[in-house]
Amino acid sequence: MSHTTYTSGQPSAKGRVSLVGAGPGDPELLTIKAFNRLQQADVVLHDRLVSDEILALLPSTAQRFYVGKARSAHSVPQKGINQALVKWAQAGNRVVRLKGGDPFIFGRGGEELETLIDAGVAVEVVPGITAASGCAAYAGIPLTHRDHAQSVRFVTGHLKEGECDLDWQTLSRPGQTLVFYMGLGSVNVISQALIAHGMAPDTPLALIEQGTTQQQQTHIGCLNALPSAFLAGEVKPPTLLIIGHVVSMNAQLAWFDADQADAKGFHEGKHPTPPVE
């Protein structure tokens, strides 16, 4: 089956851009289409949260450019990234804009897509597993559960000028799970605001550090008792913040932690004893 990429105006015949979601870190969570686009790439512009294991899948002939953003430290302004995508595509290249997670969830993929369509560049979007679903799954935290949460909300934790400019009253309602992206620097503010607007102080929360990778660490606490590793300054980005009663299920469902422990024991020579027939 053939697929056609549509743009407004006259598409450029010289090149194309693929806005590709790299997922939360584990390279095996790439979609088949994402992997194929990486293998075909002439030029790749990648973000800070794209793992080294995924970058290692790029062909040696591909030109790589780091255009990542950290808090208050953007290596390349967004306008410059947009212009570079247009320039490389119009020069006849197969360009991959590689983003952590999904391009359309706090990834500015919409802004880039708008620029490319306006410039008449052939473009496609390749969705990726977003950090919320990927990291929660690897931490054994179901984002929805009939007994705990009937809805889930994705929220940016990068508060504007440190101010509480979110709809805290709505966020504090029961029966939902809150997932804050880029929220590590605002955990204290978020916790205090939710309590002030009626959320129970003992509501569980989780900070998932380097989710879905072999370095994953899941730090559990609650609104009025933040994880000790966070208070000690030991938690480093990339980190996802999950708040809600579903977090309590981590104690029972943390399959990935057990899987890592089993793998570590195997490599250290602690092999399981085979069953006796």
Automatic annotation (TrEMBL):
Return one GO MF term. Answer: lyase activity
Does the keyword Methyltransferase feature in the UniProt annotation? yes
Q: Record's superkingdom?
A: Bacteria
Please verify whether the record's keywords include Oxidoreductase: yes
A biological process from GO: methylation
Residue ranges of coiled coil: none
Q: Where is the composition biased (Polar residues)?
A: 1-11
Q: Which UniProt keywords apply?
A: Cobalamin biosynthesis, Lyase, Methyltransferase, Multifunctional enzyme, Oxidoreductase, Porphyrin biosynthesis, S-adenosyl-L-methionine, Transferase
Q: InterPro entries from the xrefs?
A: 4pyrrol_Mease, 4pyrrol_Methylase_sf, 4pyrrole_Mease_sub1, 4pyrrole_Mease_sub2, CobA/CysG_C, Siro_Cobalamin_biosynth, Uropor_MeTrfase_CS
Using the record's annotation, list all stretches that form the Tetrapyrrole methylase domain.
17-224
Region spans: Disordered: 1-20
Q: EC number(s) on record?
A: 2.1.1.107
Pathway participation: Porphyrin-containing compound metabolism; siroheme biosynthesis; precorrin-2 from uroporphyrinogen III: step 1/1; Cofactor biosynthesis; adenosylcobalamin biosynthesis; precorrin-2 from uroporphyrinogen III: step 1/1
Query: Cross-referenced PROSITE patterns, in alphabetical order?
Result: SUMT_1, SUMT_2
Q: What family, per the record?
A: Belongs to the precorrin methyltransferase family.
PANTHER family found in the cross-reference section: SIROHEME SYNTHASE, SIROHEME SYNTHASE-RELATED
Protein name as it appears in the record: uroporphyrinogen-III C-methyltransferase
Q: What is the species listed in this Swiss-Prot or TrEMBL entry?
A: Vreelandella arcis
